[in-house]
Amino acid sequence: MAFDIGAVQNVRLNPVQELKLAKPAVDLYVGQILKSVVVGALKDDQVTIQINGQNINAKTAHHFAPGEVLDVKVLQIGEETILQVLSDKAPPSPIQTALAQNLPRQAPATALLATLNTLAEHPNLPANIKEQINSILASLPTISQLPKQIMQAVNQSGLFLEANLLTAAHTPAAVPPAVLTADLKAQYLNLLNTLAQQGITPPSKPMATTGYEMVENDSLPLPGAVPQPHHRMEPKSLQSMADMPVEKLLSVLSEHTEHALARINTSQYSHLMKTPDQPYSLMLDLPVRTPDGQEAIPLLINEEHQNNLMPPRFSISFALSLNDLGDLQGTVTLHQNTIDIHINADKPATLDILQDHHDEFSKLVNDLGLNLGAFGLHLGLEDNKIDGSRFSLLDLKV
Description:
Layout: E1 12-13, E2 18-22, E3 33-43, E4 46-51, E5 54-60, E6 69-76, E7 80-86, H1 94-102, H2 110-120, H3 127-139, H4 146-155, H5 161-170, H6 177-182, H7 184-197, H8 235-242, H9 246-272, E8 281-290, E9 293-304, E10 313-322, E11 326-335, E12 338-345, H10 348-356, H11 358-367, E13 371-379
InterPro entries: Flagellar_hook_control-like_C (IPR021136)
Domain Flagellar hook-length control protein-like C-terminal: 312-379
Keywords: Cell projection, Cilium, Flagellum
């Protein structure tokens, strides 16, 4: 079946996703199902679609990606033929809806940590807010403590607050109060509540940019993401923030706290969307204290299945941005008593330094009663592998 394009005078895709054709030179009947393909976008409100090999321009209030296949159903024939765009997508679940709300608002805790550090010594800060800021900073593990305290740090990262609250409600002795007090999500919520009591709330517009510099290649906590280094705020931005009136600083603090909280929520919802048959995977930001200040280290914990006869392997991937060594990505994989280490760096000199310390890495692993297996050094950082085709649900472009 072919359309006579000369007879198609106007095709419009309205907000309820209908195609309107003026006197098509073909015989159609109500209820007939046709297929169309989105060829490309002409401008914001117009796309080109293809039906039976013929290209037709269509006005639209919706976003359709090039290559997207649309099933259309004939609703009405006559002077004006109306084709309805059918959708085979199930309505979004509550978790999908929550993810769609949080994803545009989330951001790494990098800016929040810089804001907390700036405010910690501010002379005009309200006492209750200053106390909460110091409590958050003091609860962060140091980089030297992290290897021995990583399980505790992950447990208090905010991802398990609700689970710990549920456990505490049934078995109070199983979750000491200090665990809930130190939980980052709980602390962020308490800080936002304190600020709200003083009339300071985050902006309603997603991702306002007051005092915040977006990371260009972010480690979105979504399937396929690869940890990317979080870069600190530039000194000029920090100085600009320090020069703000305290009221403005508290507004920035509220915004950055809400971004970090949405980041935790996004990680939780993304994890909950996994099916039981999928390997375990968890992505999070782990704030730590370093000699140069606070850092948010992105971590990815993965379970890797080889086959049914072999036990699964677990790996931890991370990313760092260091003053002297540049940007780094690392993956440590544990399989029985063997550890494989792979490191990506953006500077060739960094790889040379790491290679020179191969024997020290081997000795460190041996001291733990393990063996060093692969020791791979790679130039260039690994990019994200997020599948953006599923984002039509979220109405986002990546």
